[in-house]
Amino acid sequence: NNTWVSFPNQISYCNWKGDGSLDSVEACQASCLGNSECNGVTIRLIGDEIRNCLMKKCGENAYDLRSPIPCPGEDCQSGVWDTYMYIAPPPEGSGSPKLALQYLLQ
User: pTM of this prediction?
Assistant: First the structure.
């Protein structure tokens, strides 16, 4: 079961792979899923309006998350920034039955 994991108030500094749809969070995520190099998005909201949908390519569990620079101030990042990473399950059959049994017998 694939899922999106949210990182509220965090900006991913992984490689930028383009801009996605601004229609909704789900549309932004769908843009990412349509790009084979994308596995996460960073979204900026101002009020209720999505102003940025930044598609990201991060290494496995290496999301390079940082808090936004508060405003006012030099290079401040206004709005609300949230990052969502797409987590795919391991390939079917790639798990270890021995480890699964050990876990169940704990």
Answer: 0.80
